[in-house]
Write a structure and sequence with these properties.
Number of helices: 24
Protein name: Organic cation transporter protein
Strand order of the largest sheet: 1-6
Structural class: mainly alpha
Pfam families: MFS_1 (PF07690)
Largest sheet: 2 strands, antiparallel
CATH topology of the largest domain: Growth Hormone, Chain: A
Distance between the termini: 34 Å
Keywords: Membrane, Transmembrane, Transmembrane helix
Organism: Drosophila hydei (Fruit fly)
Subcellular location: Membrane
Length: about 575
């Protein structure tokens, strides 16, 4: 077929111009830079919609405008405790002791006689700890009755990701990788600025949804552009490095939030720089593979010649002649190509294959397990990132560490996939997450370094699991529905991720509950994964019958040079974005 021939020809061309020469290295670095800001925007709500420390404003003891979050008389006015360092923490930031009306004339000193320690009341004004200014102060989103509004910002973000993922995948195939990649990047910047300019909670929520829609297209399209510009031996490397950029971008968000305490300034810092990527329209080339698939051989030939010049390579006479011939044929084969596309669509027979899948109890059970594992991965992966700001110690540093641990997490997945196979790599990653999350949840008191270390190990495990599940799922799907099947799983995971922002709220009822929940569902997912068939060194199933036969002893295996997918040839959600 035309597209497969073009793709094969381009791999042959890469062998002449270089699989990852200077031309590809420069352009690959360029497409990685927007990923940094996509990663930061994907989790910016952790800090812009975060909850600062606050307590009731005590009018009897604070008549002036100069207010301090920590004072020495708080114990007599507010229910709470002090730690060994003397820092006071209220049991409920919206409760105070009732005023003793008979002693209100003694305002010269703030003492226990001004309050009734057995009676509490709600307060309407608050004193915030300096050093952090979020939407909570701007729109008075305080107390438990407003906690859902802050969590709902995260849910809105994931809803935007679902919309954007479905939309931009189609648009990139229709209008080109570069144009849609640039549109997503600029749209992300503009809607991020809109968030900073929001005038109330509802407008902030609307811009957060639009910002997530734009953000959702940056990482996947950068992944596709990167993979399509290099040779087969370099594809895995490009996907790994792009994941590293994503993790660094998330960590830089923690650093930026640490330095920029005002949520609006932080949002401007994350949103204005992406606007400058508009120059990529002139700097970054379109995907040659996409151009060849669209029969635009003239544009593809110009990019190939430019790459050969920059890489200091010479094209062979045979290749030059082939390019010229393809350019001549491009004006004559449109009708033939249309007929070939129609025939190929008929041959695929997607819907009959879908019916066969639903007719197999084995595949239904297998895919239900996969759906559950995908949802667990999303809930735990994003839930741990959100819950990192609740750990003791510096929350900005904790957040950065939780993001950076993704780098060894992806590396662990890459290693385990080759040494342990798909099933043990997935199960082991999930069980590692389960054990360390549960242990971190129970250790609510004690050495802070141990709690944080266990927490980081949990994030490492779930990151590895998320990387494995893409490859594992793709290798269990028959060819005719592989892309759609992985897409369904990924979309289901995003719906699961919508629950992640609400999980940390469970800590207000029982402090270890969020981590114990993460540990429990990871444990269940890890055990269920052992029921799935091993796909390592197995031929990719082309038909539903071959997919059903996976795991049976009669199924033939291949050597290490088979067509199993490499560990990082699928983009994660950043994920994510």
């Amino acid at each position: 077929m035309a597209e497969s021939v073009a793709a094969m020809d381009f791999d042959e061309i890469l062998s002449q111009i270089g699989e990852f020469g200077r031309y590809q290295r420069v352009n690959y670095l360029l497409i990685c830079l927007p990923v940094l800001f996509a990663a930061a925007n994907s989790l910016s709500y952790v800090f812009t919609a975060g909850t600062p420390k606050y307590r009731c404003h005590i009018e009897e003891c604070e008549p002036n405008k100069q207010l301090y979050y920590q004072t020495d008389w708080l114990d007599v006015a507010i229910p709470g405790t002090r730690d060994k360092h003397g820092h006071f923490t209220p049991h409920d930031p919206c409760l105070r002791f009732a005023a003793n009306e008979s002693h209100l004339d003694q305002w010269d000193t703030c003492n226990a006689s001004l309050f009734l320690p057995k009676q509490t009341q709600r307060c309407q004004q608050f004193v915030y700890e300096t050093g952090e200014y979020t939407i909570v102060q701007d729109w008075q989103l305080t107390c438990k009755e407003n906690a859902w509004k802050l969590a709902f910002v995260g849910t809105t973000h994931f809803a935007g990701l679902v919309i954007g993922t479905a939309l931009f995948g189609y648009l990139a195939d229709r209008f080109g990788r570069k144009l849609i990649f640039l549109f997503c990047t600029i749209f992300m910047g503009l809607t991020g600025i809109g968030q900073a300019l929001a005038w109330d909670y509802s407008s902030f929520l609307a811009f957060a949804l639009l910002n997530a829609v734009g953000t959702s297209g940056v990482y996947p399209l950068a992944f596709i552009i990167g993979v399509e510009m290099v040779g087969p031996r370099k594809r895995e490397m490009t996907s790994i490095v792009l994941n590293y950029f994503y993790a660094v971008g998330e960590a830089l968000l923690g650093l930026a939030a640490w330095l920029l305490s005002n949520w609006q300034i932080l949002q401007y810092a994350l949103s204005i720089p992406p606007l400058f990527f508009v120059v990529y329209f002139w700097l970054v080339p379109e995907s040659v593979r996409w151009l060849l698939a669209r029969n635009e051989h003239v544009k593809a030939g110009n990019i190939i010649r430019r790459a050969a010049h920059v890489n200091q390579r010479e094209l062979s006479l045979e290749l030059m002649a082939s390019l010229k011939q393809q350019q001549l044929d491009a004006t004559d084969n449109s009708s033939d190509k249309q007929e070939q596309l129609q025939k190929r669509q008929q041959q695929r027979e997607i819907w009959p294959s879908v019916k066969q899948v639903f007719g197999s109890k084995k595949l239904i059970g297998r895919y239900i397990i996969l759906l559950f594992i995908w949802a667990v991965n999303a809930i735990v992966f994003y839930g741990l990132s959100l819950n990192s700001t609740n750990l003791s110690g510096n929350k900005y540093l904790n957040f950065a560490l939780v993001c950076l641990i993704e780098i060894p997490g992806y590396s662990l997945a890459w290693l385990c996939l080759r040494k342990l196979g798909r099933r043990l790599a997935l199960s082991g990653s999930l069980l590692l997450c389960a054990v360390t999350c549960a242990a971190s949840g129970y250790l609510t008191t004690g050495a802070n370094w141990l709690i944080v270390t266990l927490f980081l190990m949990g994030k490492l495990g779930i990151t590895s699991s998320f990387a494995v599940i893409y490859t594992y799922t793709a290798e269990m799907m028959p060819t005719v529905i592989r892309s759609g099947g992985v897409g369904v799983m990924s979309t289901f995971a995003r719906f699961g991720a919508m629950l992640a922002p609400f999980v940390p709220l469970l800590g207000s009822y029982y402090e270890p509950l969020p981590l114990l929940l993460f540990g429990a569902i990871s444990m269940l997912a890890g055990l269920l994964s052992l029921l799935l068939p091993e796909t390592f060194h197995k031929k990719l199933p082309d038909t539903v019958a071959e997919a059903i036969a996976l795991g049976s002893r009669t199924r033939s295996t291949l050597n290490t040079n088979d067509n199993s997918l490499s560990s990082n040839e699928q983009p994660h959600d950043s994920i994510i974005g």
